[in-house]
Amino acid sequence: MLRIWGRLSSINVQKVAWCADELGLAYERIDAGGKFGLTKTPQYLAMNPNALVPVIEDDGFVLYESNAIVRYLAARHSPDGLWPEDLRRRADADRWMEWQSNAYTPAMRDIFWQLIRTPAESRNAAAIEASRKECERLAAILDSHLAQRRYLTEHGFTAADIVVGCAAHRWLHLPVAREPRPHLERWYAMLRSRPGSRQVTSQTTLT
Length: 207
Ligand SMILES: N[C@@H](CCC(=O)N[C@@H](CS)C(=O)NCC(=O)O)C(=O)O
Hints:
Layout: E1 2-5, H1 11-22, E2 27-30, H2 42-47, E3 55-58, E4 61-64, H3 66-77, H4 87-117, H5 125-146, H6 159-173, H7 182-192, H8 198-201
Helix pairs in contact: 1-3, 1-6, 4-5, 4-6, 5-7
Bound molecules: glutathione.
Glutathione (GSH) binds next to helix 1 and helix 3.
């Protein structure tokens, strides 16, 4: 059976759990990372020397890096569904996954750490504001892209919607003022109504 190591409060674990649920896979998830520890044990480090979550083990195959895991699961269990066969459609989905990991989520890092993980008296207001502004710039890009499309790519719902959807879920639940983004919000509501997203989208309080 597929095993997933990682706490569900981690956005990178959320992607993998959502993907597995979307695919209807039977799996065991073992809490690890953060307050659950485990990631610095020799057994865990043998699977992921970076001591980070998530990690999966699938019939003896061990893999870390959340987006690589999502691509692997989607290609294995949903060829031409969550992971398009057509090269250009696949590259398009891949591009949005890179955008999530290289732009959108890094932009959210300061605001998330300051507002969710730092005591009020120690927060850095300038870092929060800079992070909020950059997130708004990126949310505007996503919103205008989704103004023309139902999902992120012409292929329909793909792994890219899961991965960027996890980042949008975080953005839309951060305790900050946000510009209205009607197309992003319409798309997120559609993702939220998918049973496969429930483990992630039902967590409306970020921890
Ligand atoms: N690029 C890696 C990043 C993994 C990562 O940074 N994981 C964080 C949680 S989001 C982590 O393990 N933090 C330490 C911990 O939870 O103990 C991925 O996408 O899997």
